[in-house]
Amino acid sequence: MGSRLLRRLAATLLIAALAASASAQYSGAPFYTQPLLQSQAYGLEVALQRLDALDAAGDTLDDDWEEVVEGFEADLPRFIGTLRAADAARADEVEEAIEDLEEAFASRAGLAEAVEAAREALTEAYAVAVPAEVRADPAFVAALITDLSLGEVGVGEGYEEAIEGELAAFTLGYVALARVTDLWNQIADGATEQQRADVEEMLEFIGTLYPTATIDQAIVGNPEEAEAPVHRMIGVLETIVDAELYPGRDMAALATQLPEQLAGACEAYEAGNDDLGTEIAIAVGYRYLEADLGDFMEFMAPEVHEEAAELIHALTGLGGEDDDEGEADDAAADGAVEESQEPADLAQACRELMEALQDARGVFGG
Amino acid sequence: MSERGKTIRRGPAFLVGALVTGALTLGSMATAQADDYRLYVANEFSADITVIDTATDEVIGTISISGRPGEVRPRGMAVSPDGTIIYVSISDFNPQLETPEDKIIGIDVRTNEVVSEFRAGGNPERVAVSPDGAHIWAALEAIAQGAGYDVSTGEQLANFRVGVEAEGVAVSPDGAWVYVTAEATHTVTVIDAQALSVVKHILVGNRPRVVEFSNDGSRAYVTAEIGGTISVIDTSTHTVIETINLGLDSRPVEVAVDPTSSRIYVAGGGTSAVYVIDTTDNSIVATIREQMGRRPWGIAITPDGKRVYTANGLSDSVSVIDTECLCVIDSISAGRGAHSAEIGVIPGGL
Questions:
Q1: Cβ distance of A300 and B187 shorter than 8 Å
Q2: How far does A153 lie from chain B, in Å, by closest CA?
Q3: The model's pTM
Q4: Which of A110, B66, B76, B119 has its C-alpha lying 20 to 30 A from A87's C-alpha?
Q5: What value does the mean pLDDT of chain B take?
């Protein structure tokens, strides 16, 4: 790929101009300054969210929940390498607890106890993987709220999938909203009276969409009904915590950041630290797919996107499933890792992904 | 949204009609009546259209769009070049559902009756009318297409792949270009309306919503909701030549181009404000906040340029702005989820 493709792109792509990014209105940018920490924390949060959902579902658990349980396979690689480096025993405990939970779910025996044990292990892991001072940072908390609200196992997506008949997704959205509310309460003191009223109005409205933890049939209505107030809430949060919370707001900047971040993954793979390499690759791949960069590249430079998406899928399991409308790789969506053929040489695959992401950056003229 | 119709630019077809009408009524010109204006507000959640007489700023009617509010919604509107027909895009709330409700209807401004209707499958979000009134263009959100339709037959002329989650659409005043925005890819697709071909895709600000052409067609203005910007496009080269920063919390959506001046008015949903921009230097000359309704999303300006109306989605209301004082002078109740606003004209009044 590389320069030949870029020349072809230059000849065929009709990008008229770059959008000048809005001036740096906020002083913080957690998705740029600590992308790996945000990704690790998101993985821990979603894993805990799955446990809360299993609890909330109670007697309604059926085989449809298998996908929710399988999702742990996507959550753990986001943080397990760092956790293992810091506390190998703790990492083993987490993995064992999740294995026990999967077995309990399969046999429907001792599930409540397994959920509780996994929660304890994950909570302790959280404290190890994410430093206390980071967890106390309002910008970090607001970024987590953003991911839990707009992410693919989040508040907005849960409601949308419930309309499509994914009943377990509704419960995931329900517990995500509870967690978002909890996180909001941690930073609400920094808000003005009006800001607080605005955020709480949005939370209250979203709460009306999630009146119960479970549903027994698909919802009829607007799939974006939860997402719209979420966006409004995040807009207010940005002003409260003085931080940029949309990593894809300036796509050229994101396209610049991702290969820089991926360099750490390639170094880790070269050094034989595959877990850390994959952690970073997931953080990079998720942002590529979720912050609209993937959609943009698929539309404007499909060859570049195809290369990037295939390599992200190979390294992380994310993506790999285009829908009929050309939207990029919604499989990040379910938080589920699809079966993918792991490359024989992870370092080489990482280098190839690096080249693809650099090509993507080149589409923006840089 | 309003696209070029918002400013009631009257094209050749109108002029011919006007000349004929003028000849017939020449003797009574001295006593000719002024045009009446009607404001139409599409209410997303109550599935109806509020009709307001701008002379009194009173609601004079409500047009039901569907018996299934909450499932079917009216969104973007456009007006015919002579101002007498309001076109409304209607779709199911669930973009994945391909229902008969996906259509565009035409409402006669004089009678407020639906006088035309044609299918526009793929979840039409916003519509625009060509300057001769013969064609309608729609942004089909669910299938990422921009599509043109023949108004007289309802037949689809052509459709083009545009970016993901197509949203806004506008036709240039000379009828040469159709611009279609796409939320998820942050692009504007330029369609040659005569050759019926895609010319290029333009990267604009994050989550572009609405596009409007300037009165002379030399510029197009594209709001970016998450970007908090307006991309200014030179339509001779189809390139972004400037980006107006309204602030990241502004959440701009619809734009009203003043037909009588160089101003544009931008609805800022995030800040519950209207931004007034002088397009001679693209500076923000005023930000109207006081007494504004909550989350202004739609915006329209009367053809005489004296009043601006905003459709306020969170307060289910319309704010009335006097363009002299640049202040809110009234508030009018609308339906639930006021989304878009458009001005229709009754030539010579009722």
A1: yes
A2: 19
A3: 0.87
A4: A110
A5: 91
Residue B255's nearest CA partner among B234, B235, B229, B236 is B229
| Neighboring chain A residues of B270 at a CB cutoff of 8 Å | 232, 235
Q: Which residues, at least 6 apart from B72, have a Cβ–Cβ distance to it below 8 Å?
A: B47, B65, B66, B90, B91, B92, B93, B99, B101
CA dist., res. A358 & res. A363, Å (int) = 9
Which of A235, A249, A292 faces B249 most closely, judged by CB atoms? A235
B66-to-B74, B91, B333, B339 alpha-carbon distances in Å: 9, 10, 20, 16
Counting beta carbons within 10 angstroms of the beta carbon of residue A217, is it exposed (0 to 12), middle (13 to 18) or buried (19 or more)? exposed
Where are chain A's structural domains?
30-241, 249-363
Cβ proximity of B318 and B293 under 8 Å: yes
Instruction: Give percent of chain A with pLDDT exceeding 70.
Output: 88
Go through A74-112 and write b for each residue having 16 or more CB atoms within 10 A of its CB, e for each that does not: bbbbbbbbbbbeebeebbebbbebbebbbebbeeeeebe
Q: Would you call A31 exposed, middle or buried from its count of C-beta atoms within 10 A (0-12, 13-18, 19+)? A: buried
C-alpha distances in Å from residue A129, one per residue of A134, A151, A182, B97: 10, 21, 20, 43
From A307, A291, A299, select the one nearest A351 (Cα to Cα): A307
Is it the case that residue B31 has pLDDT exceeding 90? no
Please give the Cα distance from A94 to A123 (Å, whole number).
Answer: 10
For residue range A214-262, list pLDDT tens digits in order.
999 998 888 888 998 999 999 999 999 999 999 999 999 999 999 999 9
All residues of chain A having their beta carbon less than 8 Å from the beta carbon of residue B229 are: 19-20, 22
- Condensed to tens digits (0 to 9), the pLDDT of residues A139-181 reads 999 999 999 999 988 999 999 999 989 999 999 999 999 999 9
Asked if the model's pLDDT at residue A137 lies above 60, the reply is: yes
User: Among A134, A42, A120, which residue's Cα sits nearest to residue A79?
Assistant: A42
Domain boundaries, chain B: 3-24+34-346
Q: What are the structure tokens assigned to A111, written together?
A: 């599930």
CB within 8 Å: B93 and A223: yes
Res. B6: pLDDT tops 70: no
Q: Which residues of chain A are within 8 Å of residue B94 when distances are taken between CB atoms? A: 163, 220-223
Phi-psi region of B303 (alpha: psi -120 to 50; beta: other; left: phi over 0): alpha
Least CB–CB distance from A17: residue in B144, B186, B202:
B202
The superfamily in CATH containing domain B3-24+34-346 is YVTN repeat-like/Quinoprotein amine dehydrogenase (2.130.10.10)
Task: Chain A: give the shortest CA distance to residue B190, in Å.
Answer: 10
Asked if A299 and B164 come within 8 Å (Cβ–Cβ), the reply is: yes
User: Residue B167 corresponds to which tokens in the numbers above?
Assistant: 């949203």
Q: How many CB pairs under 8 A join A and B?
A: 132
Contacts of B228 in chain A (CB under 8 A): 22, 25
Which of B43, B72, B203, B295 to mutate to probe the A interface, most A CBs <10 Å?
A: B203
Q: Of A16, A232, A327, which is closest to B202 when you measure between CB atoms?
A: A16
Question: Complex ipTM above 0.85?
Answer: no
Residue A350: how many other CB atoms lie within 10 Å? 28
